[in-house]
Write a structure and sequence with these properties.
Shape: elongated
Low-confidence stretches: 284-294
Largest sheet: 5 strands, mixed
Mean pLDDT: 88
Structural class: alpha/beta
Number of helices: 7
């Protein structure tokens, strides 16, 4: 047996030992997840804010591994361990001949979670409303859409109404944009944005609405408006605002008050953790062999 063969066998034994250690730690992590589930009782299983914190921390300390692979590995583990507390299933928007959202859901929710196909967003909202444990994947709103799904969230039906809880993909630049809806409480991750619907009393320009949001101390981006009916007025406008905003947020109250009746309501329809930017890691420098005789 040559020296190189002996060295290779030794390195492979080290990999086997590390694999055993990783497996032991995964089983230990699973046991802790079970204990957490017992301690919190009936609390929500899926915690998108907490999951985002975990992934951000790991990507920040990552070396060598591609961020895409790291996030995929941890997402599989997170979802598998969440399933120890109870079943997780996902309803996915899947228009004809367009598997993009299916691939996005599978990438994020793993290989074992059941996925159900729906050809229109309304069916997903109905399913999520009727099944409290169901998660829905819907397309990110675009300007000019007919019958936008997001307008159905701009009501005061409380806990029975789905809310936006996440944005996909979490690793920016991979796949198309989607939003995750569920009957779960929204939670902050430390770097968040909130989707807010402004219900108008009369027609207002986007420029004017953006000026009002800025005056109220809000950093906002216009996304789209519900197409007008009858008089052609666009009464519902959707904005993406910086921060984790709840219905009683003082800045939203100020926005409505300062509008002097132009804005009837400012309705948060959910929040999402800001996705991570995928910054490729530099390859490790190759170690040059020492000169002969050194």
């Amino acid at each position: 047996m040559t020296t190189d063969t002996v060295a290779l066998a030794r390195l492979r034994r080290q990999i086997d030992e590390i694999d055993d250690q990783i497996h032991d730690l995964m089983m230990r992590r699973a046991q802790i997840v079970v204990e957490i589930g017992t301690a919190k009782g009936t609390g929500p299983m899926v915690r998108p804010g907490r999951e985002a914190e975990i992934l951000r921390r790991l990507v920040k300390r990552n070396r060598l591994l591609p961020a895409t692979a790291l996030v995929r590995i941890w997402r599989e583990m997170i979802v598998a361990m969440t399933s120890l507390e109870g079943p997780v299933s996902v309803a996915v928007y899947l228009p004809d001949n367009d598997p993009g959202f299916w691939d996005l859901a599978r990438d994020y929710y793993g290989a074992t979670v059941p996925l159900a196909r729906h050809r229109n967003p309304g069916a997903i909202l109905r399913a999520v409303t009727e099944e409290p444990g169901l998660i829905g994947i819907l397309p990110f709103p675009r300007e000019g859409e007919a019958g936008p799904w997001w307008r159905h969230l701009a009501t005061d039906e409380g806990e029975s109404l789905p809310r936006i809880i996440a944005r996909l993909p979490f690793l920016a630049g991979h796949g198309r944009d989607a939003l995750v809806v569920a009957r779960l409480p929204c939670e902050a991750s430390g770097d968040d944005r909130t989707l807010v619907v402004l219900e108008l009393a009369e027609v207002q320009s986007r420029t004017h609405l953006l000026a009002l949001t800025k005056h109220a101390g809000l950093s906002a981006r216009f996304i789209t408006a519900e197409p007008g009916h009858g008089d052609g007025a666009e009464r519902l406008h959707l904005f993406d605002m910086a921060g984790f905003l709840e219905p009683a947020d003082a800045k939203l109250a100020k926005l409505v008050e300062d509008s002097q009746g132009q804005i009837r309501r400012a309705i948060p329809i959910g929040s999402y953790a800001v996705p991570i930017e995928d910054k490729p890691k530099r390859r490790a420098a190759q170690v040059e062999p020492a000169p002969a005789g050194s």
